[in-house]
Amino acid sequence: FRDHHASLLLASLFSGLVAGYSMTPPTLDIPGDDLAIQSGEALTITCRGQHTLDWAWPDQSLTKFEVTDRQKQQRPADVLDRRGVRVGECEGQPGKPYCKTLVLTGTYGNDTGYYRCFYKDIKAIIDGTTAASVYVFIKDFQHPFVKSYGKNNLETIFYTESTEVVVPCLVSIPDLNVSLYLVSTDSGITWNNKQGWTIPRATLDNISISFLFFVCTATLSSITYDSTYYLIHSTGSKVYDLKLFPEESVELMLGDTLILNCTALVEFDTAVDFQWQYPGKPVNESVSRQFVRTPLSQATEATNILTIRNVNKSDTGSYTCTAKSVKEEVKKSIMVIVHEKPFISIDYKDGPVVETTAGDKSFKLLVRMSAYPQPVTEWFKDGKLINRRPEFKRMRAHHHMLEIRDVCEQDSGNYTVVMKNVAASLEKQLSLTFVVNVPPQICEKKVVAPTNPYPRGTRQTLTCTAYGVPTPTTITWKWRPWSPCGLNSSRHNTIRRGPRDKIPNCQNWQDMNTEDAMNAFDINTWTEIVDEKNKTVSTLVIHKANVSVMYKCSAENKVGKDERLIYFYVTTIPEGFGIELQPTEEPLEQELLRLKCNADNYTYENLQWYRLDPHAVPPELDCKSLHQYAKPLGGELSFEASSNNWVLEMTITSIQPSDEGNYVCEVQNRRSGEKHCHRKYIPVRALEAPHYRHYPTNQTVNVSESLQIECDVEGTPAPQLSWLKNSQPLYHMSGISLQDSNRTLSIQRVREEDAGVYTCTACNQKGCVQASASVAVIGEPPPKEMVEVVILIGTGVIAIFFWALLILIFCNAKRVNPADIKTGYLSIIMDPGEVPLEDQCEYLPYDSSQWEIPRDRLRLGKVLGHGAFGKVIEASIFNSDKKSSLNTVAVKMLKEGATASEHKALMSELKILIHIGNHLNVVNLLGACTKPNGPLMVVVEYCKYGNLSNYLRAKREFFLPYRDRSPKTQSQVRKMIEAGQVDHRGHLPSSVPSPSQAMEDLWKTPLTVEDLICYSFQVARGMEFLASRKCIHRDLAARNILLSESNVVKICDFGLARDIYKDPDYVRKGNARLPLKWMAPESIFDKVYTSQSDVWSFGVLLWEIFSLGASPYPGVQIDEDFCKRLKDGTRMRAPEYASPEIYGIMLACWQGEPRERPTFPALVEILGDLLQDNSLPDIPLNMSQSSEDDGFSQASSRPPSHEELALTLPNRYYNCVPFAGCMLVAPSKLCHSRVKTFEEGSLEMTSHKAHHDSSQSDSGMVLASEEFERIEHKHRGYQMGRSTEHLIGPVDRSSTHWSPFISHLSGQTFYNNEYGQLSEEGMVVDFFSTPDQVLSDRACPASSNL
Questions:
Q1: Does 34 carry a binding-site annotation?
Q2: What family is this (predicted)?
């Protein structure tokens, strides 16, 4: 209160603040601004105002006494005995109702200073506005100078850039003569009795030393008095930084010690005053403060440490440290919380469901958490602890936050955070559902080129399969007329796109409607499970391709959109580029031949004919080096405007045998500039005069007998045959039949007039030949009545014998129980984990409106195969008008006398086929006949080449390691990929090939190594589909794989139509026959069938394929020792034609532990990569052949002729490209070490040469029920001990060789009631096991990159 100048400054600063108050300042009863009284006198000042009043005085150490009127009257002496300031109420006045009186007794010099009355309830204390003050001098002649309160006799005055310095030597006598020591009065200094001496800054600057001592002196009664000594020192004023440690909020328990460190970084020589504000400051006595000042190179560090011991709840609150310099003031605050006991509290931050988008760089899962002390935090995903395992390498847990980097769809799931305080036995957990949305992706964009030529007038199906999260509800189709578009590479989308995703910026798209569309169409859209993902499939079916247009399909969900552009180019050339021979494919010598090279103008240009050097024909046609082994030919180039095609025609007027050979047409792609070649082999048939292979012989026949004369003649071209009898022309008439192009002459019931000389004449361009034979007729015809009697008697005897034989067969036929029908003869079943085995027939639906085919539309043909209970018959299916045939099909039906159980088994097979659905590599269901007016018939696809086992054996002699990379093949690949992804929803195919569409005959083409890999890949792809439909095959073998046109293989299940009692591949076990050589160990010993046991069978199937149809385990007796060695790890050695890569896949499939075998999706990936590899292994050829035939398949036993093999290698590998998934997986490395094989055992067996004897039969390989029970008992005893140890004790994996195929089982173990109870041993699966030992490439000489 001594610095009245500061009060005036405050008054000016806050004048605007209080301007809004309508009040008058308080008034004092003392006139003037100051008052002087003698020391010892009582000071009394009365203040009146409009609001509640209060007082302030110079000496803060004086105690304030609130005195009431009663205290004044009763004991005024008690109050006077204690020195202090008495403040009491007094009587107000009109307009100023509030009044307070200040009374100070026993005054002395140090009470000199400002006494201020102010409004108590108003924060701004401003003289003249909200306050009134008076300066009171207490004349104390013994103490003329007012000393500083509570300070020593030395006071420091810091100054910085101020213009003047005040030396506050205050006096108690107003008119006292005061001198300032060391400074003369003529140096500009001024005196103020209420303030002291004011020294100008210039005076101080003239003094050379950095600090000065000043003292004020006065003389009274010849006595000199000194004031406090003042040290005036120049100092800094800047506070650079202030930090309060800890920087975050502090949490403590009751009784802990709180330590706060307040550190200021200040300018050199800056005086710092630290002040603390905290909740317990007024009452807390356990507080200590420590001050530390540390000089640094560029500044000074001042530290003040606040320590509070034994904290309690009242110490909770905000702690503020203020660092003050001469000119600056900086504050830092921190929150201190004192807890009574440990606790954990967690809650959702953004709700229980959190969403993000795949492709985000980082996403943080957050929860609200409050806990003390800090708990141990663990995060779980779908019940699995998130740690440093590779599967969680993109996740990092930070207490109550989980960060996921590079978010992908697999990160979706249920996340749980668990917080534990073990010492306090506290645990809390909270679960969140994390949804990763995926922008739509149209799968066909990655595998199908946007531009394809489509034959004019054909029915075409365009497919768009979209996957996204959430699933796109629909796929939109649009179209626009055919015209160029500009490329738009700046599309805005939510995920990164590749170069193939650049969509041309086409305008004028139109909605699909039947009125404006150029081609008639239908659109079908549905959702289905593909590769275990819910995808939206939409097909645009073009009924008749007439006009070239552009189509676009679009899929959209809430996080993105994807589009696929399809250039629907209609052409008259099916492949866009091909060769045509006219008038025939196999010209005769001297005939006219036209070679036409047709190329679509939209795609190709620069047509050129070549003829290959017959002595330098390469195994593969390479356009880049074509000129090295071919010479160019001429031709006439023309353009067909109506079809937009180029035609390069070369004419050979009279073809000769020397013209036979390979002709190549070369074209150039307009866009890429790449050259493509198409090869055509032209066989020339040399003219050959007719000649007899066997001459007709003379015959003598009886009357009424039959007569047949063969004219066995051949020539080129085929001769025209004619017959003469006794030199007279003979024609087809009643009783005389000319068959097989007049090659056979037949006469039924010869008469005497038929005797004579018969002459056969054969003619072609090279000449004519003839041969004769005489016929003599003897005997008399029997009486007519006798003939009829003989016929009747013979018919009766035959009928009696037939019925007796039929009765004998039925009496001795072996019958099986219904369980055998349901489980033993149906290989493909649904996973009993999904539907119980005995309920599958009732559970699965059958929609007759979709699948029923009228029986009168089927015309049954020959029997293709038969079993103990059923048969497969070739049939033709007709249109509803029953006039035109659609296609050849296969019909499954029961034999006569079938029981209700057998009927139920075939009905179950029908419903399982409906449940499975359509796939390119599965024999698909076409329909059924189930109405009660006839037999139950199941109509499926017909495969003309029979089963794969017979086909491979028949093709052994014609095995060649060739590849084909022609444009035609590549175009077929693209079409097959698109066709393979269409799910035909109807019970009949949407389109069937017309008879005019020429299919290449596989019998006329050699078999290559690539064919074998192709077959393996297709079977894996079909099994991948079956596994995705929760189906298990249980009998996967080459005999159950059928070969169809275009080199497509299909998985089938003969079921009731296979006679397992006669098939040597099925070994008897008790009352059941099982394909033991194809069964996995867990299926043999524990009757466990899963998709992984099908993988074992697939490995055996690979062995069959690469041995060209040999029987597995050649020379090995199927007995108890075989089963034991198989369980102990003995395996078949590599087949003759298998490369190390293929054999490595077999060994992976034959892993003893099912979980260590590769899954079918992994096999599809590996075989697909191997199939598309540019190199082929060097495989020796073996031309052995065998004709083993099981007789139960759709077999075609005709082997290819040498003439057929002379034809060129066809372009037929268009089915062998993986398309099942939309995301490619990097190929894995398979490493197989030394394998113990059956050939190395001590068993006596036939020595095995380079080529196997495929005629080997396993008949007689029978295991008695007792022998199998002994094997199972040993196995279960060993397995029980092993399983118990595995379940209870730790597992030592230090010496275990873990398979590189780390994958979950794609099937489920089920119970087979045919073979007894399923044991529970060995069912513990470690889904997170990782190999402890990684084998290097150096340790794997047989390994290769698959």
A1: no
A2: Belongs to the protein kinase superfamily. Tyr protein kinase family. CSF-1/PDGF receptor subfamily.
Give pLDDT tens digits for 1228-1243. Answer: 334 444 678 887 654 4
What integer pLDDT is reported at residue 183 of this predicted model?
Answer: 62
Looking at domain 688-778, its CATH architecture is Sandwich (2.60)
How far is CA 760 from its chain centroid? 74
1108 closest CA partner among 1207, 1209, 1022, 1008 = 1008
Spatial CA neighbour of 904 closest among 1249, 81, 912? 912
Burial class of residue 75 (count of CB atoms within 10 Å of its CB; 0-12, 13-18, 19+): exposed
Give the helix, strand, coil percentages of the chain, each rounded to 5: 20, 35, 45
The pLDDT of residue 501 is 47
> How buried is residue 980: exposed, middle or buried, by Cβ count under 10 Å (0-12/13-18/19+)?
buried
Active site residue 1035: yes
Per DSSP bridges, beta strands 925-929 and 885-894 are unpaired
Which residue, 337, 321, 312, 324, is CA-closest to 277? Answer: 321
pLDDT, averaged across the chain: 77
Where in the chain are the domains?
Answer: 4-139, 154-234, 239-339, 343-437, 443-571, 577-682, 688-778, 819-984+999-1240
CATH 2.60.40.10 corresponds to the domain 577-682: yes
Q: Which CATH architecture has domain 819-984+999-1240?
A: Orthogonal Bundle (1.10)
CATH code for the structural domain at 343-437: 2.60.40.10
Enumerate helices (H) and strands (E) in the chain, giving the number of each: 20, 76
1244 compared with 158, residue with greater pLDDT: 158
Q: What pTM value is reported for the model? A: 0.39
CATH 3.40.50.620 fits 443-571, yes or no: no
- Considering only CA atoms, which of 1066, 1041, 1033 is closest in space to residue 951? 1041
Question: Was 868 annotated as part of a binding site?
Answer: yes
**Annotated binding residue at 33?**
no
If one counts every other C-beta atom within 10 angstroms of the C-beta of residue 813, the result is 10
pLDDT for res 780: 66
Q: pLDDT tens digit string along 1136-1156?
A: 889 999 999 999 999 999 999
Q: Output phi, psi for 1202, to 5 deg.
A: -65, -30
Return the pLDDT at 1069.
58
| 867 assigned to a ligand binding site | yes
Q: Lowest mean pLDDT: which of 95-104, 211-220, 339-348, 1099-1108?
A: 211-220
Indicate if the pLDDT at residue 1193 is higher than 80: no
Q: For residues 1164 and 1185, give the distance between their C-alpha atoms in angstroms, rounded to a whole number.
A: 30
Model confidence over 262-272: pLDDT tens digits? 999 988 778 88
Is 1040 annotated to bind ligand?
Answer: yes
Q: Are 98 and 119 in contact (CB under 8 A)?
A: no
d(CA 844, CA 911): 6
CATH C-level class of 4-139: mainly beta
Q: What is the CATH number of domain 239-339?
A: 2.60.40.10
Tell me, yes or no, if the two domains 239-339 and 688-778 fold the same way: yes
Query: Does pLDDT of 562 surpass 70?
Result: yes
Q: Does residue 657 have a cis bond before it (omega within 30 degrees)?
A: no
Please check if 139 is assigned to a binding site.
no
According to the annotation, is 915 in a ligand binding site? no
Q: pLDDT band at residue 1268, thresholds of 50, 70 and 90? A: very low
Fold of 154-234: Immunoglobulin-like (2.60.40)
* Cα–Cα nearest to 1124, from 1032, 1234, 1231, 1242: 1242
Looking at the predicted structure, is the pLDDT value of residue 1073 above 50?
yes
β-bridge partners, 567: 451, 550
Long-range contact pairs involving 191-196 (C-beta distance under 8 Å, separation at least 24): 193/137, 194/2, 194/4, 194/34, 194/135, 194/170, 195/2, 195/3, 195/4, 195/5, 195/166, 195/168, 195/170, 196/166, 196/167, 196/168, 196/169, 196/170
What is the CB neighbour count within 10 angstroms for residue 263? 20
883 is in an annotated binding site: no
